[in-house]
What does this fold into?
Amino acid sequence: MTDNERDLLRKQRMEKRTRNLDKNNKPNIAKPKKMNRRITSNKTALAVLCAVVGVILFIILIIFIFMRNNGQAVYLNDTRIGVIRTSSEGVHTSDEIFNLIVAQLASEIGTTVITEDTVSVKRVRVGRNDFVTLATVMRDIRNDMDFLLEAVAVYVDDQRIAIMLNHTSVEAVLVKIKNRYHPDHLNINTYRTHFLEVIQIERYNTEMSNVLTNEQAYIELGREVETEFVYTVVFGDSLDSIARQHGLSLEELFRLNPTSNFEADPRIWPNNRINVINKNPLLSVVTYEKHEFTEVIPKPVEYILIPGQPAAFRRVSVQGRDGERRVKAYIIRISGEEQEEREIISYEVTQEPILERIERGEG
It folds into this structure.
């Protein structure tokens, strides 16, 4: 090989080396064509997979949005009452709704409510026009619910007379009955008041329809009761006077004595027995009215026998005098009728009595 050939070969090698260097003077090593095709294929597969996953997630999201439960169906026992919207009304448990209804009933009625009905809730999906408010559901449940009231029964001498909501209502009615006989017109301070009969108040569970209002209970407990008994005729009685004495008309008296034929022969005799009726209040109100009054203290009298004088002989040897005392006492009335008995509280003697001596004949 000549020198010129060697120089030419060296020059070709230098040019080739120069082409294989990049701008940073680093070797630019070309990748094999087969490797480039494999990488391109992997990228394409990954992109397709991502697209498929995205589509699947989008479909799941659409299904969740349009098919998810958007409400709560509320049931009374097994009957569906209505559906409330979960988003606006919040999520309510069956116990929460039940307790709200029972508390609302108790507040409105004024006593505890007892029921065996149950409230349940189930998640459902409905159209937007099928929703109702929680207040509407509660109102419908209240209208359909069967419940009892924890009321109280009023017994008079062991006989049940009235059923009322609570003790407070009973006490209000009893006070109103007592006030019938409060002697305000006499300007007297009524110190004590009670009923002659035994009154018991006991818990009693019942339906609302059996409970009396305060006004109804006042009429029932304040009514008069009729007691039939046999009256013995005394001297001076007549059928008319006996009827008036017991608040009866002659027709009522005749009806009570059908076998006596008073219409044909109205004559009666002492010791005749006649059927009559007494009308007395169901509740007899006893009042103790505090009074102050002056009472006479009878003067003591001493008798002195005078021998030799006839039995008809009388002569006052020492003039006596009655005393006086200031008395504080309770006048007792039963349903407005004053009783003879009085309960003495205290008394103060304002004038002492003076002894009187009377002489009388021994014969």
